[in-house]
Each structure stands twice: as C-alpha cells, then as structure tokens.
Amino acid sequence: MPTARDILAAKEAAVHEIAASATVLEATLEMNRHKIGAVVVSDGERIVGIFTERDVLRRVVAELRSPGEVKVAEVMTRKVICCEEDTDLDDISAIMKERRIRHVPVCDGQGKIVGLISIGDINAHYASKQDQTIHFLNDYIYGRA
Predict the structure, then answer these.
(1) How many structural domains comprise the chain?
(2) pTM (2 decimals)?
(3) Can you give the residue range of the structural domain that contains 133?
C-alpha cells in the first residue's frame, strides 16, 4: 500500500509555514501566491497550528473581522492532526473523512515537519492508479497484454 512518503515523493517538497504573529491578510496572500489551501503555523521549531481557507471563512469573514488586523494565532486551528511518513494512504484518507479535514502535516520520527498532504494529493494518487488499472484491463481485454 502507498504511504505518506510515496505521496510526498511525487509532489513539491516545500511546506509553506507562517508565524502565528502574522496577520490573516499576510497568510492569505501567501496562500494565494502559492495556490494552496493551507499553511502550517510554526514557532520555528514545531507546529503550533494550521491556517486554512475554512478558518478564513468561519473565523474572519463570517465574523466580519478585518484580515489586516486579526492575527493568525487568533483564528488558526490549534488541534493539528499529523501523521508519520510511513502512515498508509488509506489511513490518512480515513482520518480526513472522519475528522472532516483536508490537510494533514507529515512529520518525521523527531516531530519535524517534512511535508503536507492534501485531499487533492490523495485524489490525484487514486485517479492515477485507476487510470493505470483501466489501461491494463483494456490491454488485457483486447489482447495487447
């Protein structure tokens, strides 16, 4: 079965982080610049939260707060669900479904962040595997295998 390590190997390795002291405006500009839906909030050494598009909608826009004045620390998600590099992809997918989250940071054995897996990464992986299976079955059915 594929693992978090396999997914990270197939995508951009950069993990976009921001300080808790940054404003929501700074965080969203960073997210827009990189075309991502979440940034990890860190204190330089460890994860202290995650800031997502959902946080912007629920805790800033819906409450009519000013993005230029509100700090990420005030509105970020503090309880971050992480996984390790050897976590099975099906387990990560189940966590996302059960917890209704779309991003899971991946940490090494010492707790250092090494990547971030999104629901889009998982969907792309499954779609690629499905395409391979369809191609194989097509070749088998029509005698090209």
Answers:
(1) 1
(2) 0.83
(3) 4-141
**Helix, strand, coil distribution of the chain in percent, nearest 5:** 45, 20, 35
Instruction: Indicate the SS3 state at residue 115.
Output: strand
Q: Are 23 and 41 in contact (CB under 8 A)?
A: no
Residue 104 near residue 80, CB atoms below 8 Å: no
CATH number, domain at 46? 3.10.580.10
Q: In this predicted model, what pLDDT tens digit does every residue of 78-118 receive, in sequence order?
A: 999 999 999 999 999 999 999 999 999 999 888 789 999 99
Q: What is the pLDDT of residue 144?
A: 66
Write the DSSP assignment of 48-73 as a string of letters: EEEEEHHHHIIIIITTT--TTTSBHH
- For the cut 90, the answer to whether the pLDDT of residue 12 exceeds it is no
3-state secondary structure of 18: strand
Residue 51: other Cβ atoms inside 10 A: 28
Q: What is the mean pLDDT of the chain?
A: 91
**Placement of tokens 């610049």 in the chain:** 33
